[in-house]
Structure formats: C-alpha cells, structure tokens
Amino acid sequence: MTGKEKDLRIRSIDISEGENRAPNRAMLRATGFTDEDFKKPMIGIASTWSEVTPCNMHIDQLAIEAKAGARENGGAPMIFNTITVSDGIAMGHEGMRYSLPSREVIADSIETVMGAERLDGLVAIGGCDKNMPGCMIAIGRLNVPAVFTYGGTISPGKSKEGNDLDIVSVFEAVGKRNAGNMDDDTFKDIECHACPGAGSCGGMYTANTMASAIEAMGMSLPGSASNPGESSDKLADCRRAGEAVVDLLRKDIYPKDIMTKKAFENAITVVMALGGSTNAFLHLLAIAHSVDVDLSLDDFERIREKVPHLADLKPSGKYVMEHLYQVGGVSGVMKLLLEAGLLHGDCITVTGKTVAENLAEVEPLKEGQQIIRSLDNPIRESGPLYVLRGNLAPEGAVAKMSGLKVRKMTGPAKVFDSETEATEAVLKNEVEAGDIVVIRYSGPKGGPGMSEMLSITAIIVGKGLGEKVGLITDGRFSGGTHGLVVGHISPEAQVGGPIGLLQTGDTITIDSETQELKVHLSEDELEERRQSWTAPPLKYERGILNKYAKLVSSAAKGAVTDL
C-alpha cells in the first residue's frame, strides 16, 4: 500500500497489520494468501450453492466468476457458503415450516462470517426464494460495500405436445389428476419435463420477483434479474459483480446509501408492474427494517394505486422470465417506467451511477414484443397486489388479484387448523363452489414459519374451482399461486387474531374493490368468542422452529426476528 493510494481495508486491517496479528495471517496463508493479498481489501463471496435444488446447483460456478472479478480489480476474495432450502420440495408438508426461518438463518450466517473474518466487502449470490432476502438482510445489517447477484432463472420445460412447462404446471396437474381430467402418461410427462436444468422457478414467482425488486432497488447490476441461470450473460454478470464491489470500496458507497426510502419505492413499483409475488411484502419490509427505513403496508398500497400492471407473466399470464430476458428484461421494463415518471431516477446504485444513468445505456424493450403491455394498454390500471383490512385483518392482509374475473366473494367459511386438513377436504370434494376455506394457525408463530400454500391452491385451480372458492389464511402463498386467495392475515391466530375466532358456517366477505376482509359478526359476538379462546401451545419445544416462534414478529412487520 503506497501513501498515495486509498486504503480499502476498512475492516480487514484488524487482521492485516501488526505483529500481534501474525497468528491470524498464518491461518489465511494456508488458504493461499500472500504478503500482497494482505495489502488488499478482503472480499467475501457468499455462495448459496447446494445440490438440494435446481435453483442453486450451479451457483458454485457463479461464485468462482465473482471471485475472479474481485481479484482482477484489486481485491483479495474468498468464497464461503450458506444454506438453502427448496420451497418447491418443501411445499405441502411439514418441511415448509422451515422455509421462511431459513431466510433468517441465511442472513445470520452471512453476517456471522463477515463479522468474524473482518471482510471489507461482499458479493452475495442467491437462487431459491429465501436466499435473496436473506442475503439482502445481511447486507443491510452489515452495511459494508456489497453487490447482490441473482443465480438466474430456469428455462421453461417442454411437454410432449411442445407446450411450455414450469413447476406450477406440476402442482396444478395434481388437481387435474384428482378431478379425473388427466391420464397417467400426461401426468408423468409433466413431472419429468417441468424442470429442465439449473435456475430458479421460471414465472414471476418469488425468486424472480425478488431479483427484480433488488435490481430496481439498485443493489444488483443492470440485467442481473433477467439473465438466465445457464447463460454466458449470467457468468459475466457475476464477474462484473466481483469487480463492482471493489469499486464501491473505492467510491465509499455503502448499502445504506443505496437502500433509501425512494429505492424501496422503486422496488415496489417494479413488483407491481410485473405482477410479482405477495412474498415481496414480507421480504421488502424485512430488508427495509435491516437498514432502518420506515416502510409499511400503506406504502405498498399508495404505490399500487398509481402503477399499472403491465406484464403477461405466469402464474396468471402466459410467459416466463426467460421470455422477458429475450425482449429486454427487467432493465427494459425499468426504462419504460422511468420514462413514464414512475421511478426515482436519482437513486444511486451499485454501479456508482444513478438509476437514470444506468437506464440511459439500456435498449428499450423490443418492438412488437407481447410480454410487457404499453402504458396506455395495461392489463390493469393499477397494481394487482392489494392490502386488505377489516375485522378479520386489523393489521392488514395481502392478496394478488391478477388474472381474476371474480374479485369479490361472500360465502360460508370452512375452517381448518392446518393446510393438511384443508387439502384432504378439497381432495375428498368436501369443499364446494362458493365456500371460503379458512386455514389458520399457520402464521409466523403459529405455523410456525408461515407456510406457503401453493399445493392446496394449485389443487383448487386444477379441480376447476380457482374462481369459485375463496381461501384466507394467516400463512402465505407461493409466487406461483393464483386464485381468490388472501394471506398474511394479521394478527395471526396464534396471538389471538380474529381469524382464530372463526367457526365453520360463519359468513365471510373478500372484496378487492373495497379492500375489505370481514366476517359478518358483530363486535359483541367476536368479543364473546374472544373471552373463551385460549392460545394453543407452540408446536415445537426445541430447535430452530421453537426459537423462531418465540422471536418472530407479525407478518405486517415483515416477520423479522430482531425487533
């Protein structure tokens, strides 16, 4: 390090200098560090590589590219790993209780390694749903120069008839098979060909939603959200991310400089325009908490009212993320939104440039493309992700109304204390058109872990009841869910929320037009039931799910564990 050069060792100098740190350096020499490396900033490459899911099975190679980029730009990089779980594999059984808690494990583990090893900068690479918010929560807490890179989307599969397939095709096939509308060969063909390789689930589900939100927020390089997992563009994206994090150190740009309130508004805007997953509510609230930005459900609703839904993407639409990549990607959508005055162009990003400066270098969406509607011909005049309130959800609930003709329903409740019980009833044809299924004790504490319910909602759609049956829960939904469903009901049943007071036969109204979720009972009737209600014991006495249930906050606050 010469006197004229800026010392980028903002934390690793604790290790790199001084005779008393010789033992620390000796350990690193065994990993390949040299005298020259100790003069450089140490860069952590947080890899979520794992063989438990196609979403992450290629990330080891992406981490190597990020490491190479950081080294070429003057850093001393090292790869470390954190966990992942596959939501698709965990879906529909007890394993799903571990999905949302894995977000906290990922965040805690990255923060732990970065803190213990005194690393100066971070490139985090995520694939499956909880990787991205987990990485971003850690980035926010650490507030060291950092870049997030998405592992990329999977390519669509192909059926024997040549139709595009994805993982939701398989979930919905279960319902069709149960209804007698699909033969054995077709069912097996869909199972075997829905997931053809590496990358996250292909529609505008949670992984692609969060990748899009993070790029819009300025924490990923332009194009990162759209580049397919198995592409040269994705490899180049990761290498550039390694280079970029060293530049952020040189420029003194930190995550809290980028993740401002306006940056979160940009993220919400893009999520609404793309028709993203309701999980964006949970995750953006939690990421905002990590950087002390005051974000609430009211902000989502305020932005929804002014942002049109433009994207014809699955689950309610026709196309998947790879199709969007082919016509200009999320960056092209952002350029369209910026030109319409719907984005804050002055927000700084991980390139060191503003959103507007980045998008000036981006080509517009391809002429004649059919995936993103024009602003004068939107799918909906406003965003499809609603906040509902009422006597069943005093703190709020969320619903995704894209692709639905029926946007309100009043009907009798059929109440279940678990998704398993509800699924059995649906498969036995005990749920009929006009019913409103209630699944409770599935919230952050009561689940615990706030299980996603893609399995039951896909079965309902597969049985032809998608717009004939309502479903409400204090749990949550996969980004692949569509139908007249309401989740994140807060407060949850486990803490005495009104959903815990419902009885089968109660009349419930779901109304997206008035944004109301209510049971047709008087406050006196609800209070009478409240007096006789007692909280059930937590479902787990030991381990992570016990710790999570004791620590986790309301879904309306992002289900964070460090309040």
**What is the overall shape?**
globular
The spatial strand order of the largest sheet comes to 7-8-12-11-10-9-13-14
Number of helices: 21
Gyration radius, rounded = 24 Å
Question: How confident overall, as mean pLDDT?
Answer: 96
Structural class: alpha/beta
Proportion in helices: 25-40%
**What is the tally of beta strands?**
14
The rounded distance between the terminal residues' Cα atoms is 41 Å
Low-pLDDT residue spans:
none
**Sheet bearing the most strands, described?**
8 strands, mixed
Fraction of residues in β-strands? 5-15%
Description of the structure:
Strand 1 (42-47), helix 3 and strand 2 (76-81) form a beta-alpha-beta unit. With 563 residues, the chain is of the alpha/beta class. The two termini are 41 Å apart. It is globular. The strands form three sheets. The protein has an eight-stranded mixed sheet. A four-stranded parallel sheet has the order 2-1-3-4, sandwiched between helices. A two-stranded antiparallel ribbon has the order 5-6. Helices cover 38% and strands 13% of the residues.
Give the SSE map:
Layout: H1 13-16, H2 22-29, E1 42-47, H3 59-72, E2 76-81, H4 87-90, H5 99-117, E3 121-126, H6 131-142, E4 146-150, E5 157-158, E6 164-165, H7 167-178, H8 184-193, H9 206-217, H10 232-251, H11 255-258, H12 261-274, H13 279-290, H14 297-304, H15 321-326, H16 329-339, H17 355-360, E7 385-390, E8 393-400, E9 408-416, H18 419-427, E10 436-439, H19 454-462, E11 470-473, E12 485-490, E13 507-511, E14 516-519, H20 523-532, H21 543-551
